């Protein structure tokens, strides 16, 4: 040793060597996983029954994903509790990349904020893969209603607080929360009337028994085209592709107003990063295929693929946004 130099303890040197060796082994392990993945079929959890929009999106993507990965992608429908049961099942699945699932605003942002107790954490328990679609809602009124715009609705609501009503497909749905958000943003009091689905709500709207209905575009589009109901606004940040002549709520003087139905692909937390990256690449490529775009966009949504980190940030922002709205309104799922 030279004068003044300090001897590095052998234990520290050994620890450093072990750490570097371990990191190299982990990196090699991840690389090996990425090279052989997938070596068996994938399980694709859909937290809703067959036939709905979420199931349709999942099946369209699953067919192409099976082709690109060279392994079957088996759909596993697990409906219940507004999508919470399927989400919980996905959260508890092995994080090996062989279980993926399709989540949406209801079971990742709205439901957890509405329930006093949750069996999964929407941020901590999943590895986001990519956002898939964003679909705005539409506010519709009866064909004979004097309300022709969001501003008309607000004026009428302020003239008779609590007298007007709005319908939705049920407690805790995006349509319900849209009305809550509008009440808060405009300082009005329009009473929520929950239904067991969009169809009975539409019947009452057409019968003049509710003032307006917040619903999905597919459930309203045909009636709007036939002139049986009128669309007064859509709920996205920009005008909807399928209803370009209908203004947004934001255009009525509420620039930050946006409520959308969104869907995305996720894996259980701690899924191998290389596997998540591979799935992201495959799914983003699938979403760029013209035939897939045609099928997925049929219901009025906008494709919104991106990096896993972008989807993770989006989920965090949605969880924070709607927790605040729901807390201020004092509503629960019970």
List the helices and strands and how they pair.
Layout: H1 10-36, E1 42-46, H2 53-69, E2 73-77, H3 84-91, E3 99-104, H4 105-114, E4 126-142, H5 150-159, E5 165-168, H6 174-186, E6 191-194, H7 198-206, E7 212-216, H8 217-225, E8 229-234, E9 260-268, H9 273-287, H10 290-296, E10 302-303, H11 308-329
Parallel strand pairs: 1-2, 1-3, 5-6, 5-7
Antiparallel strand pairs: 3-9, 4-7, 4-8, 4-9, 4-10
Textual characterization of the structure:
- The chain is an alpha/beta fold.
- The chain has 11 helices and 10 strands.
- It has helices at residues 10-36, 53-69, 84-91, 105-114, 150-159, 174-186, 198-206, 217-225, 273-287, 290-296, 308-329, and strands at residues 42-46, 73-77, 99-104, 126-142, 165-168, 191-194, 212-216, 229-234, 260-268, 302-303.
- Strands 1, 2, 3, 4, 5, 6, 7, 8, 9 and 10 form a 10-stranded mixed sheet that branches.
- Helix 2 (53-69) links the parallel strand 1 and strand 2 (73-77).
- The longest helix has 27 residues, at 10-36.
- It is globular and about 65 Å long.
